[in-house]
Structures are given as C-alpha cells and as structure tokens.
Amino acid sequence: MSTTRSASMPGEGVADATVHHKSARQRRGLAPPRMQLNLAAMIDVVFQLLIYFVVTANFVVDEGVLTATLPTGTGEAADSLEPPSETLDLRLGSTGDVGVIIQLGGIGRVDTFTELANELDSLQFDPARGRHAFFAPDDPVVIRPEGDVRWQHVVNAFNAAIKARYTNVNFAQPE
Hints:
Layout: H1 24-28, H2 39-56, E1 88-94, E2 100-104, E3 108-110, H3 113-122, E4 125-126, E5 131-132, E6 141-145, H4 151-163, E7 169-171
Parallel strand pairs: 1-6, 6-7
Antiparallel strand pairs: 1-2, 2-3, 4-5
Helix pairs in contact: 3-4
C-alpha cells in the first residue's frame, strides 16, 4: 500500500521568502556578542619579551673607541702645494713576460731589486748611520711603472725602498 501525499499540505512545495533564522542568543533575548581582547595573555607576552631583551642586552662599553688627534692651526692653505724638490724617481719597464728594467732617477740602471735597495740606501742622507748623500729618509720616492710591468715588480721596488728606510714611498699612474 502506498501512501501519497498531496501538495496541498501546509509547508510543502511552497517556498516562503519571509522565513528568518534566528540564532539561539536572539531567541533567548540576549544582547549580541562583543569582541574582547584577552589582555592577560597580551600582558604575559609583553613581559616575556621585556625579560628576553633585558637578559640578552649587552651593557658593556664598546671596545672600538679610537682616540683621534685633530690637527691644529688656522685652516688656511699652505703657501705652496708643491711636493719637496728632492724627489727620487724609480722607473720600472717590462722586458717580456717576467723581466724588468729598473731605472733609478738620474743615477742609471740597476739589475736586481737587492742592488736597488743597496743603491737607495747609499743615496740617503743619514748622519746617524754615516750616510752623507743627497736624499733624506722622508724625501718622496716615486715608483713609476711603464707599459706592462708585472705587479710583483712594483711590490719588489716598494719593498726595496722600505728596506732602504725611506718613509715616503709613492706610486705614479702607469704610463
């Protein structure tokens, strides 16, 4: 036996557009919920961060403090910006892959860097060491590389000048 329902029963087959759904709070007559921050948890996190930063902070005085002696004077320009008149020129030229030509000022050619150091030492005016030549230890020595001179030769010339106790060694632009 089959039972059929008719469409005339109330609530079936007919769509009611005015049906409103109410939440349980609204049906009980309670006010809508309000959003609240949990301040206790936020204060706990802030205190933990504070403790972390206090523990990890470094309150030691920096070690990298350098004392500086500033120049004294009026700040006026010097009378002449010319370098000292006693300049010792040292020219280095290339002779192929590994060779070098060492030309010392107006003195002449030198074959090795050991001879260069000895020659520079003999050209120095230093009464304490018994040297009475033309150049003071603080006169500029200018190293002038020419052509494709290897950097090692320039460094060797610098080392020879330092070995001869010159204190003002400069490099000129390669020509």
